[in-house]
Amino acid sequence: MPTSRSYGDACGIARALDVVGERWALLVVRELFLGPQRFSDVRRALSGASSNLVADRLRELEGRGVVRRRKLAPPAGSWVYELTDWGRELEPIVLALGGWGLQVPLPPAPTTLTATSVLLFLRGSAHPDPKAPDTIYRVQLDERIWTVRTAAGQVYVEPGEPTRADASLRADPEQLNALLDDPSTLDAALSDGSVTATGDLPALRRLLQAVTVPSPAPV
Length: 219
Known about the structure:
- Helices cover about 40% and strands about 20% of the residues.
- By secondary structure, the chain is of the alpha+beta class.
């Protein structure tokens, strides 16, 4: 059931946690940073949460004005959830929290990793050569397709099929994450079939090599 619990604390931190502090709430928000998602998309990404729990979090966030629900225009016609302008203000806060969290040891296996998580990391950690030509990549992670574009030293990510692509990559989120961690493994991944790539492979290598992976904090 949706909850309306409060810390009853006047501090701004506590008041923020009254809105997004319930378990799974910030992960629901994370899944919406790259664009609108259907309920089934959010539910599939958060495989450790039940359908009822995800529905509760979405209703709470919608009721608080963080998320809104709207119907896509035909021919799609499906309902999607997206962040409101106020909800979008959470992005730098949550990404900063994620950067801090990269220094925390991984939880015991098995773990999950969503496409949104990997693409947010790519967008924030890649620093392409500003003088390199603009490049468009078609990235398929599991069953979803994303457009990744580099321009003027920045990386842009949005859901959906690009109108054209200089290079294409098909993998699962864990495999892409492994390539970002060690781009030199691309040839081996292509050889064993765990990754499929076509088009401008040197451009794809440049994208992977543009990522700076933070060093872990001392334990």
